[in-house]
Amino acid sequence: MSAALEVIEAARAAALDDLGAVAAGASLCTLRGERIPAAKYHEGAVAALGEALRAERDRRAAPDPGTWGAQWAQLAESDDGWRAYIAGGRAALAAIGR
């Protein structure tokens, strides 16, 4: 396994752990209040790192941290959850240097 794959897999595992801690065993669909943006942030990180992992395995360019999630920008204009999701994904990609 390449060093890049190891870094991405470790970051994704950490993001999954963080998501699980915020959800505290509850389904993401049942979360309410301040737990939603926190969970969505970590969910975005998991999603973006999953994309980065697939790109690395397929020897494709990794997602760009500056534009990842742009397809949801309109939703994020009026929804804290979407803003958190995109922010989490972009931060995770930036943290692994992608």
Question: What do you see in this structure?
Answer:
- With 98 residues, the protein is mainly α.
- The chain has one domain.
- The protein contains 4 helices and no strands.
- The radius of gyration is 13 Å and the shape is flat.
In short:
This protein is mostly helical. The chain has helices at residues 3-23, 35-57, 73-76, 80-95.
Task: Give the topology, please.
Blueprint (H helix, E strand, L loop, with lengths): L2 H21 L11 H23 L15 H4 L3 H16 L3
Helix pairs in contact: 1-2, 2-4
Total number of domains: 1
What is the total tally of β strands? Answer: 0
How would you name the oligomeric state of the polypeptide chains in this document? single chain
Shape: flat
Residue share in helices? 55-70%
User: Which structural category do the helix and sheet elements fall into?
Assistant: mainly alpha
Separation, N- and C-terminal Cα atoms: 18 Å
**Helical stretch tally:** 4
Provide the low-confidence segments as ranges. Answer: none
Strand content: under 5%
Task: For the structure shown, list the relevant keywords.
mainly alpha; flat; 65% helix; 98 residues; 0% strand
